[in-house]
Amino acid sequence: MTITDRSNAIPAAHPVLAVISSLLLCCATLDATAQDDYERCQTHYGVSGVIEIDELTTIASGGDIEAQYCLGVALHDGKGVERNPTKAIEWYEKAGEKGHYASQYWLCLMYKDGIGAKVSSLEARYWCQRAGNSGNPEGMYAMGLWYLSSVIRDRDVRAYIWFLRAANAGETEARTMLELLSSQLTELQIREAIKLEEQGEQ
Protein backbone atom coordinates (compact mmCIF):
# COMPACT_ATOMS: atom_id res chain seq x y z
CA MET A 1 0.00 0.00 0.00
CA THR A 2 1.12 3.53 -0.71
CA ILE A 3 -1.22 5.26 1.73
CA THR A 4 0.14 5.98 5.20
CA ASP A 5 -2.69 8.04 6.74
CA ARG A 6 -5.21 5.57 8.12
CA SER A 7 -8.12 7.72 9.26
CA ASN A 8 -10.31 6.31 12.02
CA ALA A 9 -13.45 8.05 10.88
CA ILE A 10 -15.18 8.89 7.62
CA PRO A 11 -15.86 12.63 7.22
CA ALA A 12 -19.32 13.99 7.97
CA ALA A 13 -21.89 12.61 5.56
CA HIS A 14 -24.05 14.54 3.12
CA PRO A 15 -27.18 15.45 5.12
CA VAL A 16 -29.63 13.69 2.79
CA LEU A 17 -27.99 11.75 0.02
CA ALA A 18 -25.38 9.92 2.09
CA VAL A 19 -28.15 8.27 4.09
CA ILE A 20 -29.87 7.10 0.92
CA SER A 21 -26.64 5.98 -0.71
CA SER A 22 -25.59 4.06 2.39
CA LEU A 23 -28.90 2.21 2.34
CA LEU A 24 -28.45 1.37 -1.34
CA LEU A 25 -24.93 0.12 -0.73
CA CYS A 26 -25.88 -1.81 2.38
CA CYS A 27 -28.70 -3.68 0.69
CA ALA A 28 -26.49 -4.69 -2.23
CA THR A 29 -23.03 -5.36 -0.86
CA LEU A 30 -22.33 -4.67 2.80
CA ASP A 31 -20.65 -7.78 4.16
CA ALA A 32 -21.05 -10.67 1.73
CA THR A 33 -19.21 -11.37 -1.45
CA ALA A 34 -21.09 -12.28 -4.61
CA GLN A 35 -22.09 -15.93 -4.75
CA ASP A 36 -21.35 -16.14 -8.45
CA ASP A 37 -17.74 -15.11 -7.76
CA TYR A 38 -17.31 -18.00 -5.34
CA GLU A 39 -18.92 -20.39 -7.79
CA ARG A 40 -16.47 -19.22 -10.44
CA CYS A 41 -13.63 -19.89 -8.01
CA GLN A 42 -15.03 -23.38 -7.41
CA THR A 43 -14.97 -24.01 -11.15
CA HIS A 44 -11.34 -22.90 -11.50
CA TYR A 45 -9.82 -24.26 -8.31
CA GLY A 46 -12.23 -26.81 -6.89
CA VAL A 47 -12.41 -30.56 -7.21
CA SER A 48 -15.99 -31.79 -7.62
CA GLY A 49 -17.11 -28.31 -6.60
CA VAL A 50 -15.02 -28.24 -3.40
CA ILE A 51 -12.08 -25.87 -2.97
CA GLU A 52 -9.09 -27.26 -1.10
CA ILE A 53 -7.96 -24.22 0.88
CA ASP A 54 -4.39 -25.44 1.46
CA GLU A 55 -3.90 -26.03 -2.25
CA LEU A 56 -5.50 -22.68 -3.12
CA THR A 57 -3.19 -20.97 -0.61
CA THR A 58 -0.17 -22.57 -2.26
CA ILE A 59 -1.26 -21.37 -5.69
CA ALA A 60 -2.04 -17.88 -4.36
CA SER A 61 1.31 -17.71 -2.59
CA GLY A 62 2.95 -18.42 -5.93
CA GLY A 63 1.56 -15.15 -7.26
CA ASP A 64 -1.53 -16.33 -9.17
CA ILE A 65 -3.72 -13.22 -9.12
CA GLU A 66 -7.05 -15.02 -9.54
CA ALA A 67 -6.15 -17.51 -6.81
CA GLN A 68 -5.29 -14.61 -4.53
CA TYR A 69 -8.72 -13.12 -5.16
CA CYS A 70 -10.49 -16.44 -4.65
CA LEU A 71 -8.67 -17.02 -1.38
CA GLY A 72 -9.79 -13.56 -0.30
CA VAL A 73 -13.38 -14.47 -1.21
CA ALA A 74 -13.21 -17.71 0.78
CA LEU A 75 -11.80 -15.95 3.86
CA HIS A 76 -14.20 -13.03 3.52
CA ASP A 77 -17.30 -15.23 3.54
CA GLY A 78 -16.01 -18.27 5.45
CA LYS A 79 -16.33 -20.62 2.50
CA GLY A 80 -14.50 -23.85 3.34
CA VAL A 81 -12.42 -22.03 5.93
CA GLU A 82 -12.98 -20.05 9.11
CA ARG A 83 -14.20 -16.56 8.26
CA ASN A 84 -11.37 -14.04 8.58
CA PRO A 85 -12.00 -10.64 6.93
CA THR A 86 -8.60 -9.35 8.06
CA LYS A 87 -6.81 -12.13 6.19
CA ALA A 88 -9.18 -11.60 3.28
CA ILE A 89 -7.98 -8.00 3.02
CA GLU A 90 -4.37 -9.20 2.83
CA TRP A 91 -5.13 -11.38 -0.18
CA TYR A 92 -7.41 -8.82 -1.82
CA GLU A 93 -4.57 -6.31 -1.54
CA LYS A 94 -2.09 -8.67 -3.18
CA ALA A 95 -4.46 -9.09 -6.13
CA GLY A 96 -5.64 -5.48 -6.07
CA GLU A 97 -2.14 -4.08 -6.35
CA LYS A 98 -1.75 -6.11 -9.54
CA GLY A 99 -4.88 -4.56 -11.01
CA HIS A 100 -7.60 -7.09 -10.07
CA TYR A 101 -10.63 -4.79 -10.10
CA ALA A 102 -12.98 -7.03 -8.07
CA SER A 103 -10.37 -7.16 -5.30
CA GLN A 104 -10.05 -3.38 -5.48
CA TYR A 105 -13.81 -3.00 -5.22
CA TRP A 106 -14.09 -5.18 -2.12
CA LEU A 107 -11.18 -3.36 -0.49
CA CYS A 108 -13.00 -0.10 -1.14
CA LEU A 109 -16.11 -1.35 0.68
CA MET A 110 -14.25 -3.07 3.52
CA TYR A 111 -12.18 -0.01 4.39
CA LYS A 112 -15.25 2.19 4.06
CA ASP A 113 -17.30 0.06 6.46
CA GLY A 114 -14.51 -1.17 8.74
CA ILE A 115 -14.79 -4.84 7.81
CA GLY A 116 -11.55 -6.64 8.64
CA ALA A 117 -9.75 -3.34 9.25
CA LYS A 118 -10.27 0.04 10.86
CA VAL A 119 -12.48 2.41 8.92
CA SER A 120 -10.27 4.54 6.69
CA SER A 121 -11.69 7.12 4.34
CA LEU A 122 -8.37 7.50 2.52
CA GLU A 123 -7.87 3.76 2.03
CA ALA A 124 -11.46 3.48 0.80
CA ARG A 125 -10.89 6.29 -1.69
CA TYR A 126 -7.63 4.77 -2.89
CA TRP A 127 -9.26 1.43 -3.71
CA CYS A 128 -12.55 2.89 -4.97
CA GLN A 129 -10.63 5.07 -7.39
CA ARG A 130 -8.43 2.24 -8.60
CA ALA A 131 -11.48 0.05 -9.17
CA GLY A 132 -13.31 2.86 -10.95
CA ASN A 133 -10.33 3.75 -13.11
CA SER A 134 -10.00 0.12 -14.16
CA GLY A 135 -13.46 0.31 -15.73
CA ASN A 136 -15.43 -1.46 -13.00
CA PRO A 137 -18.96 0.09 -12.91
CA GLU A 138 -19.40 -0.88 -9.25
CA GLY A 139 -16.09 0.79 -8.44
CA MET A 140 -17.23 3.96 -10.19
CA TYR A 141 -20.47 3.86 -8.20
CA ALA A 142 -18.60 3.31 -4.93
CA MET A 143 -16.38 6.29 -5.76
CA GLY A 144 -19.49 8.42 -6.12
CA LEU A 145 -20.64 7.25 -2.69
CA TRP A 146 -17.23 8.11 -1.26
CA TYR A 147 -17.52 11.68 -2.47
CA LEU A 148 -20.99 12.04 -0.97
CA SER A 149 -19.64 11.04 2.45
CA SER A 150 -16.65 13.38 2.20
CA VAL A 151 -16.23 17.00 3.30
CA ILE A 152 -14.72 18.09 -0.03
CA ARG A 153 -16.09 21.48 -1.09
CA ASP A 154 -17.55 20.34 -4.42
CA ARG A 155 -18.41 16.82 -3.30
CA ASP A 156 -21.82 16.76 -5.00
CA VAL A 157 -20.34 17.70 -8.37
CA ARG A 158 -17.56 15.11 -7.95
CA ALA A 159 -20.10 12.48 -6.94
CA TYR A 160 -22.19 13.31 -10.01
CA ILE A 161 -19.14 12.76 -12.24
CA TRP A 162 -18.59 9.24 -10.91
CA PHE A 163 -22.26 8.29 -10.88
CA LEU A 164 -22.48 9.48 -14.50
CA ARG A 165 -19.53 7.26 -15.42
CA ALA A 166 -21.04 4.33 -13.57
CA ALA A 167 -24.42 4.83 -15.26
CA ASN A 168 -22.77 5.02 -18.67
CA ALA A 169 -20.98 1.76 -17.85
CA GLY A 170 -24.26 0.03 -17.00
CA GLU A 171 -24.60 0.42 -13.22
CA THR A 172 -28.35 0.83 -12.70
CA GLU A 173 -28.18 2.16 -9.12
CA ALA A 174 -26.05 5.04 -10.40
CA ARG A 175 -29.01 6.31 -12.42
CA THR A 176 -31.02 6.56 -9.21
CA MET A 177 -28.26 8.58 -7.58
CA LEU A 178 -28.04 10.88 -10.60
CA GLU A 179 -31.75 11.61 -10.28
CA LEU A 180 -31.36 12.37 -6.58
CA LEU A 181 -28.35 14.58 -7.15
CA SER A 182 -30.07 16.41 -9.99
CA SER A 183 -32.65 17.63 -7.50
CA GLN A 184 -29.86 19.03 -5.30
CA LEU A 185 -27.58 20.57 -7.91
CA THR A 186 -28.12 23.67 -10.01
CA GLU A 187 -28.27 23.41 -13.80
CA LEU A 188 -24.87 25.12 -13.93
CA GLN A 189 -23.34 22.54 -11.56
CA ILE A 190 -24.74 19.67 -13.63
CA ARG A 191 -23.30 21.15 -16.82
CA GLU A 192 -19.96 21.56 -15.04
CA ALA A 193 -20.02 17.92 -13.88
CA ILE A 194 -20.81 16.66 -17.38
CA LYS A 195 -17.99 18.76 -18.84
CA LEU A 196 -15.49 17.55 -16.23
CA GLU A 197 -16.52 13.92 -16.82
CA GLU A 198 -15.92 14.35 -20.55
CA GLN A 199 -12.47 15.73 -19.73
CA GLY A 200 -11.66 12.69 -17.61
CA GLU A 201 -11.65 14.60 -14.33
CA GLN A 202 -11.03 12.53 -11.21
Describe what this molecule looks like in 3D.
The chain is mainly α. It has a single domain (about 15-200), classed as Tetratricopeptide repeat domain (Serine Threonine Protein Phosphatase 5, Tetratricopeptide repeat, Alpha Horseshoe). The chain has eleven helices and two strands. It has helices at about 15-30, 35-45, 55-60, 65-75, 85-95, 100-115, 120-135, 135-150, 155-170, 170-180, 185-200; strands at about 45, 50. A hairpin with a 2-residue loop joins strand 1 (about 45) and strand 2 (about 50). The longest helix has 14 residues, at about 155-170. The chain is elongated and about 55 Å long.
Descriptors:
202 residues, two-stranded antiparallel ribbon, 11 helices, 2% strand
Q: What can be said about the biggest beta sheet?
A: 2 strands, antiparallel
Pattern of helices and strands:
HHEEHHHHHHHHH
Describe the strand arrangement of the main beta sheet, using strand numbers: 1-2
Count of DSSP strands: 2
Helix content: 55-70%
- Low-pLDDT windows of residues: 1-13, 26-32
CATH superfamily: Tetratricopeptide repeat domain
Rg of Cα set: 18 Å
pLDDT averaged residue by residue: 84
Oligomer, anyone?
single chain
The level 1 CATH classification is: Mainly Alpha
